Amino acid sequence: QVQLVESGGGLVQTGGSLRLSCAASGMTIATNYMGWFRQGPGKQRELVASITGNNNTAYEESVKGRFSISRDNVKNTVSLQMNSLKPEDTGVYYCNKLSRPVAWGQGTRVTVSS
Fold this sequence. Notes:
Elements: E1 3-7, E2 10-13, E3 18-25, E4 34-39, E5 46-51, E6 57-59, E7 67-72, E8 77-82, E9 91-97, E10 108-113
Parallel strand pairs: 2-10
Antiparallel strand pairs: 1-3, 3-8, 4-5, 4-9, 5-6, 7-8, 9-10
């Protein structure tokens, strides 16, 4: 059974940094097209960063230059380094496959105070 567990969220001030981690069991992150998604208050879940099996990355326009997605194939994790955080980055962050998504994890909450 595939399970995704996100961690690393918290409360930070504007301009702060957080590093989110997503641990996968029952699947191999190295061979999957993975993404980090964000669901802000009252908003739909949106894709903010992705990484292909060849480590090509892509970012939603508002996070370009501030967020960085990476994977650790040994630990079977995918991470999201978030710098220069803004209040609009507030939300619950999830990871998942972009191709044939699996059941969503519980996510990790990020709150950026102004």
